[in-house]
Every structure is written in structure tokens, then in C-alpha cells.
Amino acid sequence: MNIETLNPYVIKIMISARKDDSISSISRRMGLSYGWTQKWVKELIKEEILKERWRGFTLQENNEVYKKILKFVRESLSETSFYYLALSLMGIKYCLTKTDAVYFWTEGKYNIARYREFYPIFVNVDEKDKETFNWYCKKLGLNINTKHGVFYSPEILKDFNVANKEGYLIEPLDETISFMQKNIYNFEPALEMIDEMYKKGLKTKYKEMNYI
Predict the structure, then answer these.
(1) I need a surface site. Which of 99, 102, 106, 183 has the fewest CB within 10 A?
(2) From the CA atom positions of the chain, what is the Rg in Å?
(3) Any idea what the Cα angle at residue 63 is, between residues 61 and 67, rounded to 5°?
(4) How far apart are CA 14 and CA 170, in angstroms?
(5) Residue 82: which residues within 8 A CB-CB, separation 6 or more?
(6) Per residue in 90-128, is it b (16+ CB within 10 Å) or e — as a string?
(7) Measured distance CA(106)–CA(162) in Å, rounded
């Protein structure tokens, strides 16, 4: 593949592409204009990673270039980064919840009980998108409920509220605050951060200086 072709748009298209897909669907999932999506899809058709068909294209999952590039991307990004990126490109209704919602609302300042050998990503997935979610996980080699390494810990729900923060869908702030209050011993420091950042009037005090 040409080095000019290997760019963030092409990589995201390869991650997002479904077995039978269309330019308009990819464009919506990526939030990229139809014209730009069409340009890079045509490049991937030239590389035989995608095969043109009537009103769309088919992903050639056994294409060696495709497999090598995905492997390169996995090895270049941290595991956690790849999981979050993939989730944002699946085109499903989801929201990051529990510890992940806390992490995003505190803008990465608070993370608890997760480390390299055990890193669950807590996510709600709409019931109608369960099969699509499972398909992407199989396609990209993403773990579900493995209890070791990085893995998705999903809840399949019929309906849930969603907020958008920095391009990721997360549980709304008030629901995240309720979760933290129910688990106060783990999240009291995060509640204070949230109070300072969003002026929620929680009157939470945790810092040592407050007890002197």
C-alpha cells in the first residue's frame, strides 16, 4: 500500500467496515463527509481490501494487507486506546458507564481498580445492536468478559440515556454522580473533582487539607 494512502481516515474505515457496507453508512459512523469517505474507499478498492458491488462494497477480511495493517495498528496503539477507538466506530448505540463514565467526566483524572492485567471497559449496549457489537469484537479480536487484560464488560439494555463528550458516548453526568454516591468509598475523591469542575453543589470534601 502507498504510504500516502495509509492515513487516519483509511485506518478508521478498515476498523469500521462491515462485511457488506456502503459509503454513506461508513460516512455516518465516522462523522466524515461523503466525498472524503468515497475518496478513501476507492483507494481501498484499488488495494483489494474492499470489493466494489452494486450500491456498496464487501470487506475482504482475508486480504493480507488488511490483516497486516490492523495488526500494525493494534501494536502501535495501547490496548485500551484501541478498544475505545473501535467502540466509537461500530455505529451502535452504546454508552460508557460506571468507572469509565467517571474517568471521562473527570477528564482522565480519576481511574480506580484497573491496571494492565485487569482493565474492564464498562459499556451499555443497546439490545438491538448486540449482534453487531459481538461481530465487531470477533472481527477485531476484542475480548468480552475475559476477566484479564483489557476487555469489554457490557450490559445489554433496551434503553438508556447517552451524553457525548469528546466524541465518545457516555452515561449522563447526573447518572454518573448517582453511581459514585452509591459507591462513595471508592469515588469520594472523584465527586469532589466533579463538584469543582461542573459546579454541581455536592458539598463533597475529601482532600486531606479539609480535615486539618
Answers:
(1) 183
(2) 20
(3) 75
(4) 24
(5) 73, 74, 140
(6) bbbbbbbbbbbbbbbbbeeebeeebeeeebbbbbbbbee
(7) 17
Helices (H), the chain: 8-16, 23-30, 34-46, 64-76, 79-88, 98-105, 130-140, 173-182, 184-198
- CA angle, residues 193, 183, 97, in degrees to nearest 5: 75
Coil vs helix vs strand at 83:
helix
Cα 132 to chain centroid distance, Å, stands at 14
* Domains identified in the chain and CATH numbers: 8-73 (1.10.10.10), 90-211 (3.30.460)
pLDDT digits (tens), the chain, 212 positions = 776 778 999 999 999 999 999 999 999 999 999 999 999 999 999 999 999 998 899 999 999 999 999 999 999 999 999 999 999 999 999 999 999 999 999 999 999 989 989 999 999 999 999 999 999 999 999 999 998 999 999 999 999 999 998 888 999 999 999 999 999 999 999 999 999 999 888 766 655 444 43
205-208 LR contacts (CB < 8 Å, sep 24+):
none
